[in-house]
Amino acid sequence: MKEKTIDFDLVADLYDVYVNSDLDLAFFLRETEGVSSPILELMAGTGRVSLPLLQRGRKLFCVDYSREMLVRLKEKAADFTENLETREADVRDLKLDGTFERILLPFHSLSEITDPSDQKNVLKSVRDALSKNGVFLLTLQNPKVRLKTADGLMRPMGKFSLPDRKKLILSYWNSYDPKRGIVTGMQFYEIYDSKNTMIEKRFLPIRFRPVFKDQIYDYLAELDYEVLSVFGDYSYSSFEEETSPFMIFKLGK
C-alpha cells in the first residue's frame, strides 16, 4: 500500500465527534433512490454517508484504506450487515469485480490523493467499474473558495463533548503552495478532563491537492466520461466558479 496522505487511523476514535456534517445526505439519498443493486462508496470512512443510506434500505460496498475507520463503520452498521460489504483497500490501487449502477466519492475526498497521475488512475478505475447506464457522483471542493483559508493562520474547529464529562478542543492550520499545488497543514486535538486539565494531545498532519475546474475537465475528457450535470452545492444550484463552495459532478460513460 502506498503512503497514506492523511492517516485517519490516528484519530478514528474521535472522528465522529467532530465530523458530523449532514449537508450532503439529502443529496445522496435522492441520487441513490431506486437503486436496488449494491452501491460502491469510495473512501467511506466511519460511515457518515453510509449509515443513513443503509437505514433507507440501500445496499453498499464500502472501501477505505483506514482499518480503524472501517471498524467503526461496521460497529455502527451492525444492524445492516446483510446489506453491507466493506473492503480495506487504497483507491489508488483499486481492483474490483463487476460493475456498479451507482458509485459515490463523497466529502470531496479525491483531493486527498496528492499525485495527479494517481487522481487520474482512480477516475479511470471508477469508469471501468461503472455500469453502462450507471452514474458516478464525484464531489469536489471549489479551490477558488477553499484556498481563501489556506493561508497558514491557526483557526479553531470547535469544542466537542466527550464521555465522562471530557471535552475535545480542535484547531488547525493549512497553507497552499501554488508551485507544488499542494495544501499542507496540521490538526491539533486537545482532550480535557472534567476539571479542565488537558490529559491528551494529538496531531494529525494534513496534505491534499485541490482539483481545479480546468484540470478535472481535462481528466474527464481524456477518460471519456460524459458530464451529465454539474452543481455548485448540494441543493442543485448552478456552479459559479468564483462563489460556489463545491463542484459536484454527475458522470456517466
Automatic annotation (TrEMBL):
CDD domains: AdoMet_MTases
Entry superkingdom: Bacteria
Keywords: Methyltransferase, Transferase
InterPro entries registered for this protein in UniProt: Methyltransf_25, SAM-dependent_MTases_sf
SUPFAM superfamilies, per database record: S-adenosyl-L-methionine-dependent methyltransferases
Record protein name field: Class I SAM-dependent methyltransferase
Higher taxonomy: Bacteria, Pseudomonadati, Spirochaetota, Spirochaetia, Leptospirales
GO biological process: methylation
One GO molecular-function entry: methyltransferase activity
All residue ranges annotated as the Methyltransferase domain in the record: 39-134
Species of the source: Leptospira gomenensis
